[in-house]
Amino acid sequence: MEPVNVAIVGCGHIAAGYAEDLRRYPGLVLRGVTDLDPARSRALAADFGCRSYRDSDALLADPEVAVVVNLTSHRAHVRVTRSALEAGKHVFSEKPMALRTAEARSLNTVATAGNLRLGAAPIVLLGELAQTAWRMVRNGRLGTVRLAYAEVNWGRMERWHAAPQPFYDAGPLFDVGVYPLTLLTGILGPAVRVTASATTLLKQRWTRDGQRFSVESPDFVVAVVELVDGTLVRLTTNFYVADPARQRGVELHGDEGSLWLSTWFAFGGRLEHSPLGEPYRDVPLIRTPQVTLPWAAGIEELARVAVEGGAHLTSGAHAAHVVEIVEAALHSARSGTPVEVQSRFPRPQPLSWAA
Predict the structure, then answer these.
(1) Residue 93: beta bridge partners?
(2) pTM of the full predicted structure?
(3) Which ranges of 13-164 would DSSP assign to H, the alpha helix?
(4) Pairing of strands 4-9, 67-70
(5) What is the dihedral of CA 205, 207, 213, 215, to 10 degrees?
(6) For the chain, what is the mean pLDDT?
(7) How far is the C-alpha of 109 from the C-alpha of 115, rounded, in Å?
(8) Residue 186: enclosing H or E segment and its boundaries?
């Protein structure tokens, strides 16, 4: 396809990873970046040889920009994505796409009305580990899958991130629980009901420069998610236990066997299969990942389907469904009752090389 011009809004912690990975895709060109901190924008632009826009309005006014990559903070995602869509740009957003189900749905409505593509992280379904596991499920290697476990031990954000408070405001479900939820609903189907419990394990925290702050949202959530086919998913998320922990990754358990994925995050990792009652054995991936964590893979997929047509695995509809699951879990934890999940999304299809 002809090169597609991409621009980044938000030049924080992960922006350089995205910008660097964009170089691997000849069909993508980083045209420019912008940030609320002009110095940060200028520095990233200098590092990657692109423009530094004075603000997001200037970026959106550039007719050469086709795809906007939204790398802003959690609470800014909806506003930035909506503005980009209304400016006629395709958008790829970092996770979560929104913090409210109604907002996520409205973004999809705007995209559809403008004949635009909307995609969002997590992009885990694009990876070799997930695609190999998915093929084993489709091929019946586990029999009927009835139970899945997902462990999300993400440690204490303040130990490595200079500005951890926004992550605690959003909470571990919205920040990292969305990864296994995207993986499992993509492979097994949408959720219909959630029951959850949540608490705050460590309320008082300190930033790396010694500033004390209080955690107001739960930093530990356990959710049982019922999928449309009756499969139960037990998801544990927290900002307390360091990764790697003894309990890690994703397990799928069926009538004929079990499968363990060492990670719900990266494209590469260990995959182990246990025929019912037998020891776990390593399973080779369909192919070796070129990059373990290709930040820009979702952007490449979105740009390609925007030009060529077809469905994409990192769709806004799937991301909105995951937002609803998370919101339902938090509501359930507050109310002490199960919460129904109403949305559905077009079932994704495996990539051609993994079919």
Answers:
(1) 70, 120
(2) 0.97
(3) 15-22, 38-48, 56-61, 77-86, 101-113, 128-138
(4) parallel
(5) -50
(6) 97
(7) 10
(8) helix 178-188
Residue pLDDT, tens place only, 186-204: 999 999 999 999 999 999 9
Determine the 3-state secondary structure of 84 from DSSP. helix
Give me the sign of the Cα torsion angle 23, 290, 93, 73: negative
Fold adopted by 126-295+317-354: Dihydrodipicolinate Reductase; domain 2 (3.30.360)
Contacts of 233 (CB under 8 A, 6+ apart): 147, 148, 149, 150, 180, 181, 184, 191, 223, 224, 225, 226, 227
CA distance 306 to 301: 8
Q: Where are the domains of the chain?
A: 4-123, 126-295+317-354
- Return the CATH fold of 4-123: Rossmann fold (3.40.50)
The model's pLDDT over 174-187, given as tens digits with 9 standing for 90+, comes to 999 999 999 999 99
Contact indicator for 287, 175 with CB cutoff of 8 Å: no
